[in-house]
């Protein structure tokens, strides 16, 4: 299974340690295409990519098309993450958004209001619960897949 992880880069790197924790857990489910988002070496300046921002955008949109599921940490507001989520909705890819109310922030209505408890799931959580929240989500996906009689090794969760 291919997972696309979204987290803030130019929007601010305050939550990079949480992204690391999420990506570590996601790697137990499959390959994380955007592992770099969780790297402590990536600053608010973003990646120093050959081809610049165009190359970053085109690669990420290609990965979005390729992935089976999108997981986004949305506590730190980020234009790029919002854009990725909008593109994922259009592609009809399954999305999990994770938000920490303890931050004192209020999640955008365009994310919270997109929740449909199926294809677009928004979950409030506390940092120490993150592995359990992911486990619950991926177990549910597995069960949905089983119910549809899909083969175990191809966890394609675009419903
Ligand atoms: O250098 C980058 N590399 C990259 O992959 N992104 C993608 C992945 C992140 O989920 C998202 C972050 O967007 P932003 O930088 O606007 O916070 O955009 C964003 C940047 C910088 O904008």
TrEMBL record:
Binding site for substrate: 4-10, 19, 84, 108-110
Transmembrane region(s): none
Gene3D superfamilies reported for this sequence: 3.40.50.450
Principal localisation: cytoplasm
Localization in the cell: Cytoplasm; Nucleus
Signal peptide: none
GO molecular function: 5-hydroxymethyl-dUMP N-hydrolase activity; identical protein binding
Organism, scientific name: Cyclopterus lumpus (Lumpsucker)
InterPro entries in the record: 2'-dNMP_N-hydrolase (IPR051239), DNPH1 (IPR028607), Nucleoside_deoxyribTrfase (IPR007710)
Gene Ontology biological process: deoxyribonucleoside monophosphate catabolic process; nucleoside metabolic process; purine nucleotide catabolic process
Subunit and partners: Monomer and homodimer.
Keywords: Cytoplasm, Glycosidase, Hydrolase, Nucleotide metabolism, Nucleus, Phosphoprotein
EC number: 3.2.2.-
Tree of life domain: Eukaryota
Reaction(s) this enzyme catalyzes, per UniProt: 5-hydroxymethyl-dUMP + H2O = 5-hydroxymethyluracil + 2-deoxy-D-ribose 5-phosphate; a purine 2'-deoxyribonucleoside 5'-phosphate + H2O = a purine nucleobase + 2-deoxy-D-ribose 5-phosphate; a pyrimidine 2'-deoxyribonucleoside 5'-phosphate + H2O = a pyrimidine nucleobase + 2-deoxy-D-ribose 5-phosphate
One Gene Ontology CC term in the entry: nucleus
Functional note: Catalyzes the cleavage of the N-glycosidic bond of deoxyribonucleoside 5'-monophosphates to yield deoxyribose 5-phosphate and a purine or pyrimidine base. Deoxyribonucleoside 5'-monophosphates containing purine bases are preferred to those containing pyrimidine bases.
Keyword Thylakoid in annotation: no
Major enzyme class: hydrolase
Family membership: Belongs to the 2'-deoxynucleoside 5'-phosphate N-hydrolase 1 family.
Oxidoreductase in keyword set: no
Protein name as catalogued: 2'-deoxynucleoside 5'-phosphate N-hydrolase 1
